[in-house]
Amino acid sequence: MVKEESSSHIKTCFVFTAPNDLLSQAVATRQGTMAQPILSKLAERLRAEDFKVAQVQRGKPGDAALCDVKLRDFTLVAALGVTQSSGGIECSLLTWCLRPFWRHRRAGSVSEAWGDVCEVMHRILKQDLGVTALRRLTRDEAEAEWEQAATS
User: Fold this and answer.
1) Separation in Å, CA 90 to CA 20, 52, 53, 101, 132
2) Which pLDDT tens digit goes with each residue over 29-52?
3) Torsion-angle region of residue 40: left (phi > 0), alpha (psi -120 to 50) or beta?
4) 3: pLDDT confidence band, cut at 50, 70 and 90?
5) Is domain 2-151 in CATH 3.30.310, yes or no?
6) CB neighbours of residue 126 within 10 Å
7) Are 19 and 88 in contact (CB under 8 A)?
8) Is the CB of residue 2 less than 8 Å from the CB of residue 120?
9) Dist CA 110 CA 101 (whole Å)
10) Residue 43's CB: how many other CB atoms inside 10 A?
């Protein structure tokens, strides 16, 4: 598989705070990670909108989860990392595009489809899961923010 280059204008990263009821569900399920139940809810909602979403897997390191969203000629990977704070669960959701090297699609069509899936994710996070402080960032914006947070 080839990692598809992210267009600089596509906002493929999400930063948000998950509501406390998702925290209590995560603790109650004892799945070993708070990220799994949150990403599982997002995956469930995407499936309800006819997306082909693979089973959510526990990620590494620590508190992370991964899943694939299969599209016609490529796959979007979603990775959720979480940290618990006094205000709730701070979450970073990253997406990236993978495609087999033998499948050639116009970059614009891949970017458009990727952006469409991210729009649906944004709507689900905001309306269905009730997250707060939801921000959608480009990969460059997210990396700059994480670098700044790491040096503070």
Assistant:
1) 11, 27, 23, 35, 10
2) 555 578 888 899 999 999 999 999
3) alpha
4) very low
5) yes
6) 15
7) yes
8) no
9) 14
10) 21
C-alpha neighbours within 13 Å on the C-beta side of residue 7: 13
Strand partners, 53: 69
107-123 exposure pattern, b = at least 16 Cβ within 10 A, e = fewer: eeebbebbeebbeebbe
pLDDT digits (tens, 9 = 90+) for 84-119: 777 778 899 999 888 766 666 666 777 888 889 999
* Residues contacting residue 94 through CB under 8 Å, at least 6 positions apart: 12, 13, 78, 79, 80, 81, 139, 142
Residue type, 75: T
Find out whether 68 and 50 touch, Cβ atoms under 8 Å: no
Q: How far is CA 120 from the centre of its chain?
A: 11
What are the beta bridge partners of residue 75? 70, 98
Q: What is the pLDDT of residue 109?
A: 75
Closest CA to 117 of 82, 72, 81: 72
CA distances from 148 to 29, 117, 141, 142 (A): 34, 28, 11, 10
3-class DSSP state for residue 7? coil
Phi, psi dihedral angles at 13 (to 5 degrees): -120, 145
Amino acid symbol at 24? S
